[in-house]
Amino acid sequence: MSQLAFRRFAVAAAAGCLSSVVVSCASRPTASTLASTNKFADATLRQIATAQDERATAALLPFLERPEAGYRREAALAFASVQDKAATAALSARLADADILVRRAAAYALGQTTDSTAENALRQRISIEADATTRRYVLEALGKCTSRAGLSTLTKLPAALATDTAAVAGQAWGLYRAGLRGLTSEAAVARVVQLLGKSNPYSARLAAANALARTRGLNLTPYAAAIGTAAQTDTRYEVRSAAAASLSKAAQAATVPATLVTLIRRDPDYRVRLSALRAVSAAQYAPLKEAAWEALTDAHEQVALTAAEFFLAHAKGEPGAGLLEKANKLTPWRVRATLLAAALRQGGEQQAAIRTAVQQRYLAAADPYEKGYLLKALGEDPAAYDFVSQATFLAGQPVVIGTYGIEALVSMRSHPAFPAELQPAFALLLQRAIGTGDVALMGTAAEALRNPKLDMRRLFANTVFLRQARDKLLLPRDLEAWQSLQQTIDFMENIPAVPLPVAKAATHPIDWGVVQGIPAGQRAIVHTGKGDITFRLLVEEAPGSVVSFVQLVRQGFYNGKNFHRVVPNFVAQGGCPRGDGWGSSDYNLRSEFADLHYGAGAVGLASAGKDTESCQWFITHAPTPHLDGRYTIFAQVVSGMDVVSRLEIGDRIERIELVR
């Protein structure tokens, strides 16, 4: 997923320590957590971490044979980031290491390689591994590496392990990881549903609920009763939320609408109410409508926004004027703008009046993010084409308005009612956007040009203007726009994909002098307009990422920036110098995939793909295990999660303060 794609990630995605033990924290405590120095005072550990950063497999392999168990473990963990299948055999051998922690690290690293040749070694280890926690690691790693033929090993544990809670948790996470890869079966689904049962450990229930929510193509109608019970009665919101989300795959069951209504109206945790709203299908609109109307005024703004998104996605037969009236009574601007979009989508005799009302609100709004959302709403009405195009290219305005504007225009072009006579003008508009030099306009317009549904290729005789625009970009700063333009050139010319030009470690090596000055317990306070959030920086797990963050903080880089992206029950993201998600620093970092997991309050780095991290970071609202091992975790929220849950697009990062 690119940094751009991460910024646009659909709400469907929004839905530990060790993932299968404690999911509320991102990091396993180490002996040096409270020490005044970190582990990189050890020159050998710096050497291993440097080889990891440089993706130097040949330099790392000898450390797997060192007599010191600590160095073997660190080398194995390094391969979780390097992800070179050339190390599979050496890592497989370490599954039999005399040291438990080395065996765990080797299993984790093998899972990160997703190498099917590791399947046999992992499968064989299950029955002979003496340590229960290590066995759990092996089972989860097997889910990342297993073939379809080997799925049965995960589905049915050996009889001797049937009551082993660690093995049950490992099985659940293994089935979850396999499901993310599209590997499942009827027997696997039945087992996952069993693992939702309250007699199983929390970790297994969490993995099972997420497996049901995120494995594609499942028909969960036969299991609606069991899933509904978990969604309503589990003691942990994380399980109830994921179980509620999975009810979207049981829409044919007669009991589901009533279950969702109960959750929307009564669950005490906003994340569960939100997941229930998202689980509603178009066919359930009528029985869920009243509960969704009530949710528009939910005490938690994220729930209200999700209710507005429900009407935008599913409303049918509603008078647009009625939605406009309801929208005008709402205070939160993002909720209001989304309901205005629903009003425009419904249309009717009052379409022109609704459009005028939205345009007037746009002209009166002062907040650039609200203006952007109002342009997004106007994207539902092709008759607003001239208004939105003028707003998009207006000189001297905040860049975020243009970013929302070009996205609205592309959305408008996809509308069935978009006039055929405007299509040539739209093509010229995209060419104009690409010529502006603005990375957001360029990247979004290029993406539209290669959208086969828009059939734009026939309107352009050559790609000279695309190449000229691409060649003016500065790498790695403008990597996302470069990538979008290059993909469009490849599409227009029907040529093989050109690889992403990822910067090498030598262009921005880890500054070990700075790293050694960062205490293992270093904290950072993010002062926002909504209150303070305190991070614990994970310098021992992600030294390159932490040192970059610390250096930017010391420069005041983040002062005055905004949270430009908030996806309810998923992430709040900030740190973009442009304020729209398209900004970057002048350098890239390499991904650092330590043995950490995305629980609530994990702080990760956005990226445009592996080894392209920069200055943008995000905080998770709840467990999001599908991000594990794909996005660097460099910090963990230790206080202020109530603030995180209330952050909204446009909220300001006043400053970040480093404290001991």
Automatic annotation (TrEMBL):
<dbReference type="GO" id="GO:0003755">
    <property type="term" value="F:peptidyl-prolyl cis-trans isomerase activity"/>
</dbReference>
<dbReference type="InterPro" id="IPR004155">
    <property type="entry name" value="PBS_lyase_HEAT"/>
</dbReference>
<feature type="signal peptide">
    <location>
        <begin position="1"/>
        <end position="26"/>
    </location>
</feature>
<feature type="domain" description="PPIase cyclophilin-type">
    <location>
        <begin position="531"/>
        <end position="648"/>
    </location>
</feature>
<dbReference type="InterPro" id="IPR029000">
    <property type="entry name" value="Cyclophilin-like_dom_sf"/>
</dbReference>
<keyword id="KW-0413">Isomerase</keyword>
<dbReference type="Pfam" id="PF00160">
    <property type="entry name" value="Pro_isomerase"/>
</dbReference>
<protein>
    <recommendedName>
        <fullName>peptidylprolyl isomerase</fullName>
        <ecNumber>5.2.1.8</ecNumber>
    </recommendedName>
</protein>
<keyword id="KW-0697">Rotamase</keyword>
<dbReference type="InterPro" id="IPR016024">
    <property type="entry name" value="ARM-type_fold"/>
</dbReference>
<dbReference type="InterPro" id="IPR011989">
    <property type="entry name" value="ARM-like"/>
</dbReference>
<dbReference type="InterPro" id="IPR044666">
    <property type="entry name" value="Cyclophilin_A-like"/>
</dbReference>
<dbReference type="InterPro" id="IPR002130">
    <property type="entry name" value="Cyclophilin-type_PPIase_dom"/>
</dbReference>
<keyword id="KW-0732">Signal</keyword>
